[in-house]
Amino acid sequence: MNRIGGVVLFVVLVLALQHSFGQASTDSPQQQRTADDERDEITVKGTVAEITNSLGVTGRMRIYLTLQSDSAAFQVHVGPASYVSAQRFTFARGDTIEVTGWNSKKDHEEIILARQITKHGQVLTLRDPRGSPLWAQRRGLR
User: Fold this and answer.
1) Which three-class secondary structure string do you get for 21-88?
2) Backbone torsions φ then ψ of 114, nearest 5 degrees
3) Is the separation of the CB atoms in 48 and 112 below 8 Å?
4) Measuring CA to CA, how many Å separate 45 from each of 69, 109, 110?
5) Does domain 3-139 have CATH number 2.60.40.10?
6) Cβ atoms of 112 and 44 closer than 8 Å
7) Distance between start and end Cα atoms, the chain
8) What single-letter DSSP state applies at residue 138?
9) How many Å apart are CA 20 and CA 107, to the nearest integer?
């Protein structure tokens, strides 16, 4: 391969990696929703049965909840623990909460991608109505 071909290949690889990391930087299983998806929002009330922390693709600790309603258990994808903590919001087993968000899939499992969580009148907003994570917008990672 000649020198110019090698440089072109290098530039293409760098741009591809940059694009790949740029998409994953929101650390969200679902990137962007459309305005029409707002009608697909669901709201579920229940009790926090389990809290799971898991390392996300960007290396940030993520919070997942198992929410037990009167009729079923739901897996709820909350977001980065650092963002939730910065909003002065906490979760504990037994908390009664209301989750508004969208049905989604993560690793072939049905989850609720939380947009907003309400607990004792306190509201934690995680994503805008289009589904863009607020923690990414504040860091300029959109």
Assistant:
1) HHHHCCCCCCCCCCHHHHHHCEEEEEEEEEEEEEECCCCCEEEEEEEECCCCEEEEEEEEHHHHHHCC
2) -70, 130
3) no
4) 6, 20, 17
5) no
6) yes
7) 37
8) H
9) 18
Instruction: Give the global pTM.
Output: 0.70
Contact of 27 with 62, CB cutoff 8 Å: yes
Written as one letter, the residue type at 117 is: I
Q: How many residues does the chain have?
A: 142
Write out the two tokens for 24.
């994953």
Read off the pLDDT of residues 71-89 as tens digits, 9 standing for 90 and up. Answer: 999 999 999 999 999 999 9
Name which of 111, 113, 110 is nearest 130 in CA terms: 113
Two tokens, residue 102: 């969208």
Domain segments of the chain as ranges: 3-139
Q: Cα–Cα distance between 112 and 127 in angstroms, integer?
A: 12
Q: For residue 38, is pLDDT > 60? A: no
Residue 112 token pair: 């609720």
